[in-house]
Amino acid sequence: MKTRLWGIETIAVAVLSVTAVGQSLSAVQTAQVPFPFVVSDKTLPAGTYVLTKVGETALRISNSAGQSMVVQPHKVEGRVSEGSGRLVFHRYSNVYFLSEVWSPAQDIGLQLFRSRAELKLQNQEGEMHIAELRLQK
What's the pLDDT tens digit per position in 12-26? Predict the structure, then answer.
């Protein structure tokens, strides 16, 4: 039987910009993600990403290479971030999965559903770490 170990690591990286549009989840956030990551079973390369809420239930994730995808996350409550937005990733070995997107100064974020690839790694690896990318204004 595999044991599950939970660890937390924080990744401090330079962020290009964060521009809040009002004080809602409709914020547009631009970030430099320093590692490849998986969203909905698709691996996206490291690079500059723009995350935009589309309508009430969708999130568009676009990169500077012109790749774009729309996912259907659900709302989740948490603690208010201290003036900065954040991206939360689940990490298994060296594979990162985007898990949550938080706008600056909000206590409601968007949580992505776990993909088949993440569930498979979770069952195989058993050890998941949380990597948090804090966005700065």
Answer: 332 323 333 333 444
